[in-house]
């Protein structure tokens, strides 16, 4: 019998400032994609409007360390002074609901997830998408535009963005984020193509991170 590829989860990554959040919000507005956010644990403080358990699991450093010690995280990363990590249990929970776990994570964590699936010979279960800025100068503009942070912090963000862009070829799909509609359309096409079996089943609501 033909071995049909059946991916189970999506890794969505790209440099800070590229617009992952905006694109994610649009994707989650389309219930036919059956996406569900993998809610990460983080040590960062909640921002206004963010809800524990929906946007993130906001935890103390001790709780985060305990998650690590108990081997509950498939990946984790220190991103600008805060830790972020993906729980194995989130991925399992979402798959059990017949939905597609959507991991919106930074690039270092994303490569750890890929390595894990490679190690366990399950790399076919992942669809990985890297959101690429149209140019580095455009990314610089976007980071500066959306940031009210001091120049030093912006410099650090740009340096990390450069490092992240350098890892783009580790991902299956590189989508250039020119305009939001074009980016969303391209990603929808990838998802519909990769997850055709699952998406042809009955539709349910998406549940995303962005309010
Ligand atoms: P923010 O604090 O703005 O919500 O997210 C900062 C960065 O952390 C974003 O690039 C986001 O994709 C990333 N991120 C969110 N959750 C995780 C996670 O579980 N693991 C990793 N490695 N990065 C994450």
TrEMBL record:
Its main location: cytoplasm. Pfam families: Guanylate_kin. The keyword Ribonucleoprotein does not apply. Residues 7-192 form the Guanylate kinase-like domain. ATP binds at residues 14-21. Its EC number is 2.7.4.8. Essential for recycling GMP and indirectly, cGMP. HAMAP family: Guanylate_kinase. This is Guanylate kinase. It comes from Metamycoplasma faucium.
């Amino acid at each position: 019998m033909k071995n049909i590829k059946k991916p189970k989860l999506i890794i969505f990554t790209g440099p800070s400032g590229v617009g992952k959040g905006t694109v994610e919000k649009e994707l989650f507005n389309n219930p036919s994609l059956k996406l569900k956010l993998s809610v990460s644990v983080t040590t960062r403080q909640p921002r206004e409007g963010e809800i524990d358990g929906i946007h993130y699991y906001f935890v103390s450093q001790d709780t985060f360390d305990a998650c690590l010690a108990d081997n509950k995280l498939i990946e984790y990363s220190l991103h600008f002074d805060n830790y972020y990590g993906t729980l194995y249990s989130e991925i399992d929970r979402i798959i059990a609901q017949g939905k597609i776990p959507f991991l919106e994570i930074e690039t270092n964590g994303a490569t750890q997830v890929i390595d894990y699936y490679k190690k366990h010979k399950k790399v076919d279960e992942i669809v990985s998408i890297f959101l690429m800025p149209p140019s580095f100068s455009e990314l610089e503009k976007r980071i500066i535009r959306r940031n009210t942070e001091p120049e030093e912090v912006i410099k650090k963000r740009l340096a990390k963005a450069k490092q992240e862009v350098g890892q783009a070829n580790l991902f299956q799909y590189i989508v250039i984020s020119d305009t939001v509609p074009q980016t969303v359309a391209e990603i929808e096409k990838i998802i519909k193509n990769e997850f055709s079996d699952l998406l042809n089943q009955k539709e349910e609501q998406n549940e995303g991170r962005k309010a």
